[in-house]
Write a sequence for this structure.
């Protein structure tokens, strides 16, 4: 199982210099990927912008949106931006995409919420045409220079019975956000059944996200950051905020549990914006 690390783009009080240093430090310690989270109505850093910065500052580490709420974005612009980042990174970008569940983000951008799944499917068709170099909407030129693989690889998030057919259609993988190890086995089984039922071929890449912090001095800040980010969940917020592993023993246990499930890649997502999290995690799990 590969182990990646999140960029702390949603943590409160993140200095720009820390964000710049994060990618090279994570690459130097051998993490497999750098991943982002996506929100609009939150004082976070834009996922595509921080991955573009990381692409220029690194050479080997994978880059992953985990996930990007695709129906909030113009698909033509998104396809062009993703192709550009992927080209700068030499083919290291993976787009993790989902439909999102926060209606306020959609209202702010004046985008419809109930049909977001249907729009995601339509947008995926259009984005792949753009990556293939087809002129669209009567244009005479391709919209974007071709990404290195001819398309940008995808992970699909969301309910497994819906993600499975989407992943089968686009030869994509599956990403699971924040579920504990004891729940992941069933989710993966449901996804693979839907994937195979839709004609999916081969073994799809399976990625899981787990929050963490390390160091007693960071516990209070970590809990506060998660409680703030997930405050919209009401009574569920304390379970999320208090459930993240925050000791070496707890982190090691979570990593081992996911490894036993045969997960392809585990993204350990930091809940505090401090560079010591890279060193402490690498010393523990790499």
């Amino acid at each position: 199982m590969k182990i990646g690390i999140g960029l702390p783009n949603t943590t409160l009080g993140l200095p720009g210099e820390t964000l710049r240093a994060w990618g090279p430090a994570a690459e130097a310690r051998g993490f497999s990927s750098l991943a982002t989270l996506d929100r609009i109505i939150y004082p976070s850093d834009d996922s595509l912008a921080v991955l573009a910065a990381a692409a220029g500052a690194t050479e080997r580490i994978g880059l992953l949106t985990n996930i990007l709420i695709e129906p909030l974005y113009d698909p033509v612009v998104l396809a062009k931006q993703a192709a550009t980042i992927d080209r700068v990174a030499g083919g290291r970008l993976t787009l993790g995409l989902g439909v999102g569940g926060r209606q306020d983000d959609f209202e702010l951008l004046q985008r419809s919420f109930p049909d977001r799944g249907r729009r995601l499917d339509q947008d995926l068709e259009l984005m792949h045409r753009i990556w293939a170099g087809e002129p669209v909407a009567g244009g005479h030129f391709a919209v974007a220079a071709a990404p290195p693989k001819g398309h940008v690889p995808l992970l699909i998030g969301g309910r497994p019975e819906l993600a499975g057919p989407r992943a089968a259609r686009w030869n994509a993988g599956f990403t699971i956000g924040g579920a504990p190890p004891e729940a992941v086995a069933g989710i993966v089984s449901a996804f693979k059944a839907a994937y195979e039922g839709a004609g999916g071929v081969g073994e799809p890449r399976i990625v899981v996200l787990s929050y963490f912090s390390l160091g007693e001095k960071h516990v209070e800040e970590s809990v506060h950051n998660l409680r703030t980010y997930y405050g919209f969940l009401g009574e569920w917020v304390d379970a999320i905020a208090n459930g993240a592993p925050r000791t070496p023993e707890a982190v090691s246990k979570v990593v081992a549990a996911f490894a036993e499930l045969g997960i392809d890649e585990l993204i350990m997502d930091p809940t505090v914006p401090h560079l010591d999290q890279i060193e402490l995690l690498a010393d523990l799990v790499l």
